[in-house]
Amino acid sequence: MVWTHLHAKIHRTIRSRQLFERNQRLLIAVSGGQDSLCLIKLLLDLQSKWGWALGIAHCDHRWRSDSQANAHHVENLAETWGTSFYLETANEPINSEATARDWRYQALSVIAQANNYQYIVTGHTASDRAETLLYNLIRGTGADGLQALTWQRPLTTGIMLVRPLLEITRIQTEQFCQEFKLPIWEDSTNQDLQYARNRIRQELIPYLRDNFNPQVESALAQTAELLQAEVEYLEKAAQQLREKALDMGDDEDSLIPLLPLRLNRRVLQKAPLALQRRVMRQVLQQILTDAVSFEHIEKLTALITAPNRSQTDPFPGGAIAQVEGDWIYLK
Questions:
Q1: Which residues contact 239 (CB under 8 A, 6 or more apart)?
Q2: How many other CB atoms sit within 10 Å of the CB of residue 290?
Q3: Positive or negative, the Cα torsion across 74, 76, 78, 80?
């Protein structure tokens, strides 16, 4: 086996970030593109050092005329590598990126649970992280949206989603595949500029690279990494503040907000605005069925210092917030 810089980097990353344990069962999501082929090759080469049992899963969204051939291509690779192969095919063609992502994670979870895999591993790279940051920034978001694509997160009970390539760019995965002559399956939809993410990938990132920073993808991915740690800290601090503001005593079950509820304005007034907003967002996430918007958070946060008897217009679902002395009541 040829041991490259990328092998050493991923080996160190897995160990330092404790992404996997030894002798675990890893289900690798392989589309056939360069990122997923780079990922599976690296993990296959590291397998003997870690004692993993690897499986390959492919999800056919049926949104391309060659999707069945693509699936066969990945199946043939799995057979060549002597690796278990699992295929999930959509009942109907999936044409929305968001719908496809949700269906894919659900399908991978079902495969993992049925075959006792503890981890689902994807080939998301630093380039994906940079593109996600730009995509969410353009749409409007806070730090939470900018730090999207984390190294690992629970996907379902007993199964962790892991992304070991978040410090590797797409240029590096392409070079790796060329070096090892890995048979990349080109996805024609990646060139379709009707998708915003493709325009970011094909037009915006190259423009930024050529005119502002040759290492723009790594720089943006590093920003996402820094924000991830800060978001985790702020979320914990906001949760502690929320528990004090809800004034529920020792009744832990009552920390799950149910209407009506009240928040202590005096407790919240002592906190920085960033924490006030996060507390209000956490509360709204528990009581609203719709996604919480910036406007929802702002109008609730404004009641922390508003005059007595101030109130909001109804939130989605009909809840209203009102100031009564030292308290904000949601009912």
A1: 282
A2: 10
A3: negative
